[in-house]
Amino acid sequence: MAVDWTQLPPELIEIISKKITIYSDYLHFQAVCHAWKSSIPKTPNHLPPQLPWLLLPQSQSNQSSYRAFFNLSTYKFHSLNLPEASHRKKHCGSSHGWLIILDDSPSILVINPLTRRKIHLPAISSFPNVVSFDYANVGREYLLVNPQGERNTASLRQMRDGFIKKVVMSSSPLEKKGDFFVAMAILCSTGDLAYCKNGDECWNIVENSRSFSEDVIYFNGLFYAVNKAGQIVVCDVNGNSPKVSFIETPRQIGGDMQYLVSSGDGLLLVTRYLDLDVEFDIFIYKTARFEVFKLDLNGPRWERVTSLGDMMLFIGENSSLALSASGLSGCMGDCIYYTDDYSANNYDGHIGEHDLGIFKLSDGSIEPLPCYPRNSYSRLQWPPPLWISPNPY
């Protein structure tokens, strides 16, 4: 006798749904029938961190509002309606599944590509080093002051492309209604760190943190930032005024870029080494290798890590992420999945050379990402690809 699965008790349907660990599987579960959909929450709140999708560049001829995402676990492409990230928009990071976007205005938009929920962070014109903003002063809309007190002007496009390097958030803005969250920005122009809390109308500079602008992450309730030499500043912005302390590790010499990654058992430093190639009189930086270190607070010092075991790292313009490869198809442990976040930005549709791939820590080899086969798509549209973790809230 055939079983009518639509007649399962709602409590059993809910128990089954809580065994699902991948968001796309949860959506498929909801779509089975009306009874199943009505028996479980629209937004799951039990899912572990998800395997990131890769937001792909838009081709110059594609003026559609849709953007393509590559799913590593299924090797499939997803097309999402995302006009906010179309041509002439710059992304300056992704954090907890939310994309941070700048355009030719002072606005800083934060959007969830899955749910299309949006919030706005305080405008670029609210940073302390922005003296004034005037739309009527065409080509010199912003008046800035540098740390030496000197004033200079900048256009809308210059501020869009070159003012903010990356924004990282402490949590998803809507993870819990009314929940506290903080956004931390790395400023390109001065190397400062600046932060804002939900509800703030302006950004605040973290004093004494200048030059710690290679990368920043949120870890154990605090923000950690790293400088070129692998030294760490710790920023506590939970109170009325920020508290800053330093972890004085021995200098790491020789690397070109530094990333901080929060893993299950501590803080990792990932050092990126670049080679310079010349193609058709164009200088192109390409990743040669990575080195990984774990913070030992007893030193304090960085201890070399020769194997990540089951862990895989995702780095680039995104908030750096560490995940276990166990139970996830389409990915490998002991690997670093990387995209470029150092090339000269060009957000006007021109073609550029991208540097992305999979670095195997065990033997130092590099493989192409599945969506970019070797010797294909070598010259891609801007902005560069970006890792975004699917997040339903």
Plain-language structure description:
The model is unreliable at 344-351 (pLDDT under 50). 7% of the residues lie in helices and 39% in strands. It has two domains: 7-48; 49-388, Neuraminidase. The chain is mainly beta and 393 residues long. It starts with 9 loop residues before the first helix and ends in a 5-residue tail after the last strand. It has a five-stranded mixed sheet with strand order 24-23-25-27-28, with no helix packed on it. A four-stranded antiparallel sheet has the order 3-2-1-30, with no helix packed on it.
List descriptors.
393 residues; mainly beta; Neuraminidase; 30 strands; 7% helix; F-box_BR-signaling; KIB1-4_b-propeller
Provide a quick synopsis of the model:
With 393 residues, this protein is mainly β. It has helices at 10-17, 23-30, 34-39, 156-162; strands at residues 53-55, 66-71, 76-81, 90-95, 98-102, 108-111, 118-121, 130-133, 142-145, 151-154, 164-169, 182-187, 193-197, 204-205, 215-219, 222-226, 232-236, 243-247, 257-263, 266-279, 282-296, 301-305, 311-315, 321-324, 335-338, 351-353, 357-360, 366-367, 379-381, 386-388.
